[in-house]
Amino acid sequence: MTAMTRCLDRPGFMPRLSTHHVLRARLTVPLLTAQARVRLLCAPGGSGKSALLAECALQAPKGCQVVWMPLNGAALSPLEFCARLAQQLGLPFVDEATLLLDLGRWPHTTWLFLDDFCRSPAPELDALLDRLLAAGCPQLTWWLGARRRPLCNWPRLLLDDELLECSELFFSAEEVEQLLAPGHSVDSVMQFSAGWCAGVRIALLGDGHPDKTLLDYLQHELFNTLSAPLAEAWRVLAHLPRFNLNLCEYLFGGGDGAEHLHELQALGAFIQPWEDTSDWLHVFPPLARLLRDEPWPAKRSWHRRACQWFSAEGDWQAAFEQALLAQEYEVAVSLLQHFSFEDLFRQQNAVLLLRLHEQHGDELMLGSAQLVGLLTAALLFAGRFEQAALCIDQLARFAPQPTAAAQRYLLARWQAQWGWLLHLSGDAERSREHLLEALQALPDSAWTSRLMCLSGLTQQALLRGELDVAQSLSREALCLARAHGSLVLEALLELDHAQLLEQRGAPYRAQSLLETVQAMLARQRLRAGPLVGRIVLRRGHLALRQGQDALACECFETGLTLCLQSQDKRVLYGYLGLALLAANRGDYAQAFIQLRDAERLMQQRHVPETVYRAVLLLVSGHLWLQQGRAELTVQAVRRVLRHFRGPCAKQAPPATLELIPRLEYLLVLAEVRLGCAEQPIARLNALLENSRQRGMLCLETELHLVLGEVTWQLGDPALARRALQAGLALAARCQVQQAIRELRLRAPGLLSELSLEPQVTPAGAMQNPLSQRELEVLQLIALGNSNLEIADRLYISLHTVKTHARRIHSKLGVERRTQAVAKAKTLGLMA
């Protein structure tokens, strides 16, 4: 990253920064302004230590002598080091004692840079460095760059406020963006490098073979410096998601494991703490990912040994993953006996189960009722209903059970699973019958099955508009999950609760609830990626509904990625959300591309049409109507509504509570446009009365606005004005901005013509949109606390604080912290 060149204003050679160098003030400013006498940069190779030291050297104050001593990682003897140091400082070298004496009375303000200190363990050289640092005077500032932390008396220097240590040298996403060349994106570069300086540079070379270049770099910078046993140990550890001292002892033998691990750590061999834990470690992810993709015949045997160790420790998740990597599929399936329903939402378990079933079939996967239940849940999660039905039928293989109680339990499990399949397929009546009977028969010990029955009944109550019933069922299910300490299932149930809050006209409360739940899940050791994907998509929906397009876009894109990874059928709603955002911008071509991609994915994954067809046509109908293509909307909506009318009517998908009334009012709008509507006002009033009786305020808002639009088109401006005024008032109360935006897209100029264009008011002028936690964060911001201080005081993560701050800015329509505080005080949201 740096080169040496003769400098005109200073004697000797000085570093020259690369033409690709990016100034990193966030790192250099603390280093340059520190009062510490010793400034240590300790990080693995390729972390940009030399470049950062050079950047600081070139900013030395006027009158400060700068001495640059390139060591190139060489293992010098103490005598050689003293001689070179004396030469760099312009001193005659006699012996160490004389050099120490000269350093202790050094007269000039001097910055001494020791670049790339000895890379291999060198106790004698480390001891010399310790003596040199202790002998130095305040006029002499030591700048030290090293891959390993020399064995010096660092605690003493820390206690005396004489040491500043910096080890986090990675590029931020903003800094990477300054380096980007055409054809690269910040996300792709960060995924390849995680901000590691050498990785970023390799990613941007543009040679088309970044993996090969990185392997060559790794061979030269790491493997060539390690002994054969250490190189083998490092390769093994790179194939493990995490490891600790005991696992290393088991893998490499008693004594050798601990020695290998300590040596690799001492050498700065890219070994880091795993997820901020003190006892678990992992290899730097980009390098580990690179090694895992390389062919290595020995990897299966090491994964097998790791599986044995994790099994002995009772870590079934890690043991299961290692068994799969070792291709020990029977062992992996046997370990699934230790999994529960909530484990389905952890890591990539749902995908791994589906893959096992695809590759090894029923003979391996359906050996017990518990396995049948897990596989059924995974199939339902992915939307593979036909396969799920076949899987549920396999429960008959385990009948009869030896006792009447066991037989009743088996039948109840069959009813619960079949009830959920019917529920997701749209057969509401039969599903409800199965779920209720299962709930009566399931013992208290089968609490996860009881909980899921309650969740299914909650969703059905929401779909019927029985909000009080839904609230009672949701509360019972949440209490059950909390009583058993299941945060994952509690988070799953909070999705139902959030839909209830949204229906009651409180989307901002629903959004705050889901943000809190997501933050709780983020603190779990085992990632609940599949569940977080659903939560983030629902947050995107709520943000879109409230007119927060930037946040909605971020949530939809993140949720889309997570759901694609977990094969969740609700990935559909990521595409739909992005389509609506594109339509808001007037980019209908992009909107229909998103809808096409959603339909194609559903078909590729063999998801039943009942899951996605009606929802796709609803969004398509909205877009066609905004484009003035009402005839397409009429054709599509009439066709799809046939499935939701009559004695054999289907239930709407659980994630789209307002699907049927929205299709009904969309049909009225389109027919009025074409002049073929029969009793449009009566039909809308019936929908409006129904939503009012059920307390569905968000839907009521949309219907008021639609009624105003229809009556205006039918030539009744007085009725149109009253309906629109009611809709606008409810929209302000419930923060339902998307409904107003869609009205403007369908009927541009309508609100202006009736002098009803709402004033641009901050979100919260009518009702405080900030959650209690957001208010707490804003109060601490007003007191001058940094994000890190707020995280410490509220016992939440720094990421959560930043999320709250972003949400506050979005809701108040501001860009900076000071603006947020001032706006909140103006609106009376805080004292």
UniProtKB/TrEMBL annotation:
KW Transcription (keyword) present: yes
Keyword Transcription regulation: yes
Signal peptide start and end residues: none
Domain HTH luxR-type: 763-828
UniProt entry keywords in alphabetical sequence: DNA-binding, Transcription, Transcription regulation
Top-rank taxon: Bacteria
Name under which the protein is recorded: Helix-turn-helix transcriptional regulator
Species whose genome carries this gene: Pseudomonas paralactis
